[in-house]
Amino acid sequence: VLFESLRLRGVESLGPMVGMWGFCYLDEGNNRVIAARDRLGKKPLFYFADARTICFASEIGAIHAYLGERPRIDRRV
To answer: How far apart are CA 21 and CA 38, in angstroms?
Structure first.
């Protein structure tokens, strides 16, 4: 439902959505990735990005496992 709403109406369609969700959506037509979660944060969405990689997960441990190391926090943002 969320992906079809994004496809048809864009990111603005998420505003009135109610529920628990966290996802990433590849919008190939506009060459962008949309990452979102429910307003209450019931479904977490973690991410890591550097010059070569971007990865998303619902648990931070999955990102640690993918990277093979613990990522550093960038306190400048």
So the answer is: 5
Count each helix (H run) and each strand (E run) in the chain, helices first.
Answer: 2, 4
HSE toward the beta carbon, residue 13, CA cutoff 13 A:
12
pLDDT per residue as tens digits for the range 24-46: 888 888 888 889 888 887 888 99
CA distance linking residue 8 with residue 25, whole number of Å? 13
Average pLDDT over residues 7-17: 87
- Find out whether 33 and 54 touch, Cβ atoms under 8 Å: yes
The rounded distance, in Å, linking the Cα atoms of 26 and 66 is 20
